[in-house]
Design brief:
single chain; 119 residues; mainly alpha; 7 helices; 0% strand
């Protein structure tokens, strides 16, 4: 089974993204990055991206991570805040610690692209 299936498929990804963005938008250290973003569109892109990243159907058609984030000038602190909200979201949803670890390893693998640093 893929990670996507073990997490609970589309329903689980959808719930996680909705809770995750609620946390992100409530965090003054990172919420400003979303001031001019259409959050319905953003959530749909994130759901498609995570579905693909977790081994589900590939319906993601957005920019690659490096391109999507290069104009934002993100820092380690921003990355850590987002990762923390992702981990907290999964814990809130009752995801097993081993599965959270798998998700966080995937999130960590995006670090250099999201921050636009050398690999």
């Amino acid at each position: 089974m893929t990670l996507y299936e073990r997490l609970g498929g589309a329903a689980a990804v959808n719930a996680a993204v909705d809770i995750f963005y609620h946390k992100v938008l409530g965090d003054p250290s990172i919420s400003r990055f979303f001031d001019t973003v259409d959050m319905d569109d953003q959530a749909a892109k994130q759901k498609a991206f995570l579905t693909y990243a977790f081994g589900g159907p590939n319906e993601y058609s957005g920019k690659d991570l490096r391109e999507a984030h290069k104009h934002l000038k993100l820092t380690e602190e921003h990355f850590a805040a987002v990762a923390g909200h992702l981990q907290a979201t999964l814990a809130e949803l009752g995801v097993a610690p081993a599965l959270i670890g798998e998700v966080m390893a995937i999130a960590a693998s995006t670090h250099d692209d999201v921050l636009n640093t050398a690999a």
